[in-house]
């Protein structure tokens, strides 16, 4: 594995705050990591089983520590790594011995190692305030739930775009890196890059996988027409200027390459009227719109993806919409399974999704937010409620 720190290469400097990890129930045991070094470009042996299979035991809420399994910062003791330098990344003298070329030693920028404690949740301090979801064990577990639900939704597929044997793949907002790792296993000859604001990646994924700590809203450092496929998922309320983001995608995807973007809508619906007009679940959509508007980043991006991708210049645009039930009320077996996971996703995720947005941008107190989420959980688990949310998946091709 190679870890690239683009922010450090740009010479950026952010404030630092040291905190301790936080976890909700169950009490995860978080052990500090011992410093370690990993050589850039080294082909690390990895098991034949997919990354999803290796991670699946942690999908159970009572499972082991996420922080102990992933490369997570614990305030101290973050592993040292050898990283790829940007100035040598795309030169003509790349080392044939590594799929990613020559390397130079670079220590992690100290600002990337620290976190702040806010409302009893842990947040990373790099680009502080740019992201609204915490960075702690419970929040990391939400990535696992979401990935598993997408796999179920897409009938065990990692994507819908008709790509075959891509040479270069990018996963924007990779999170814990589970999708990128599965794609790297699926296409062992491809270079797969996962980017995110904070490193929470698995320590030993496939050797053709590169993780980069970077802000996708900054200018991209890759050559034009570089990627065969760009994957985007769960970035709602994370990007202020979506047209600019899609332009970066368009400019850096090779002619004939694909973009695929998947987003949920944080609005709860029911087809049978089981959610009464005055039920608290109807507040989700209005609160999400208000909070994200004040935050300056649209959380209701899903219905607009197709239009914006078309406006960016992509063609052959295909949009699919799926239902994610909340709870096991559906008759359909697959939807029942998705609903089981989505219920856990919502029960564990409510505080993570609301605390920063409602306290900082809507004037709520932490206690008010927690009281509201407690009422929401009571409504969610009511068996009379047949709630669901919609998921939009859009893929499109860059013209030849």
UniProtKB/TrEMBL annotation:
It comes from Letharia columbiana. GO terms for molecular function: methyltransferase activity. SUPFAM superfamilies: S-adenosyl-L-methionine-dependent methyltransferases. It comes from the Eukaryota. This is S-adenosyl-L-methionine-dependent methyltransferase. Residues 25-36 have a biased composition (Basic and acidic residues). Transmembrane segments: none annotated. Residues 10-41 are annotated as: Disordered. InterPro entries: SAM-dependent_MTases_sf.
